[in-house]
User: Fold this.
Amino acid sequence: MRLGLDVTAVDLLPAAYIFLKAVLEYPAQYGEKLIDDVKYWGNWVTERLREDEDIKELYDDDVAVSIGTWEVKCPHCRKWTPLVGNWWLARVKDKKGYKRLAFMKPVRNGNDIDIEVVDVNSHGNASKAEVDTGPGKIKIGETVYEVPKPNLNARRQQATCLNCGNLIRLVDAEGNHFMEGRNLEWFVKWALKKYHEDDVQFARQRLLVKVKVNKDLVFEPCDKKDNEKLGRAKEKVRVLIGDPDVPIEPTIPYTGSQINIVFIIFKTWENFFNPRQILTLVKLIREAGKRIEEEKRGEGQNEEDAFKYAEAVMTYLAIGLCKFADYNSIATRWHNVLLMIGNTISFRGIAMNWNWTDENPLVRFTGSWIRGVETERDSLKYLISSLNNTPTQQKLEKEQSNDRTKVIIDDATALMKKNEKFNIIVTDPPYSDDVYYTENSDFYFVWLKRALSDSDGRKLTPRFHADAFFKKIGAKLAEIKTQWQEFAKKEISKCPPRFQETDNPYKNASQHFKNLLAQSFIAMRENLEENHQKRRGPRGRARRQRGEEILW
Assistant:
């Protein structure tokens, strides 16, 4: 684009298609006015959130993030015990020493486990601390602090009750506890499955610590009132079951390499979220789309142009929703070194985390809705400024044309949607089994689809980017439920779990990958201009010496 070339960008997956439109097409098409409108309508959504009664009821204005975990009812003592994978809250170091040290520790209080926050900085000079992270000891002079060890080990499938001290191991299908044996399941996994079947007598969510933003971060224990707010949020969500804005689409149904335990436990995408704020955001973003379109028609634009511009602005608001979800699911984690949220898509897939976060959308903190709007504004400034004074901008101004950059959904093994030839085709490298993009990016797809579609109260209906979220079946449009159901076996990658019903999943996945890769090379060659289908060799070198233009 910067060189002034006509560009066609192609991707198989709808989620990636939407992101490409935002990065390539709209900045070139609409320029700087897009920055102001994305900022304006992002702030419009923010102000409506401030007025929302659920947000007022369920969030404290001064709390940016709550750090939570899962609790299970111990099969030995029948008391609730939190499962904590890391008790550290802050372990920040620079060249001079430690700048911030804080941790939480459990305190038995009758039948309950309370949380105490130990902020070492408030007791002494943390820069002089000696820290041994192995046993979890902090020493400042003669004072020694002991950081508790995690009370669960997911790999070994065992947890320790913080009340009675017994190991929590395996159960049968009825929940009877055993220390070892065949055809048994880890009690924690069994209890979490029950939780998502609406049986909450064995597992529940628990908020441990709230993080406030002052000149520095302040850590405070969550009390019963904080957890009551979480409980009320869950009850509000129950009322919404059946609402098409609740993402009930199925997650990955298979297991294997790179498919984490999280997908065994959480069977639908709604299980990943505490949707109190996400559901509110979907409806507000949808309302913003209608208002943008009305405003542009009021300014004199025809219906088609007003719709296309509203679609562009809405694309950025929907991506902002995805980013907020990325920092606000039960697969996030608290990063005690960077003092920020570790977002959901920060691994090579979606992993199970035991210290997840719940973020206030209206506090300026990494990953919040309000911070996301600011980040998108800055990103758009960069994208648009990167085209200034380039051949692309000069051509756009000279030709008064906005179609020099096109983004389409297509299959690399066919490339049938563009009936034209190309001088250059640039591809991502073949990723083999690196990341299962189709399955993992459904995390974004289910929210993009809701924010950019309409709803009649019973089902989603087409609106913006209908080609990404609906497919033609005869004369009608049918919703694409998930990307993995529609596209997984079209993706050029090696994913043995996709072939788990066959005799040799690994071999079949390998052959599938090679076949599709070969088909994509053939399709690309057929879509190259004839004079660019040259091969490397003696003749090529001879032509190169004569100065003929050859594409390599």
About this structure: The chain has a mean pLDDT of 89. The chain is about 35% helix and 20% strand.
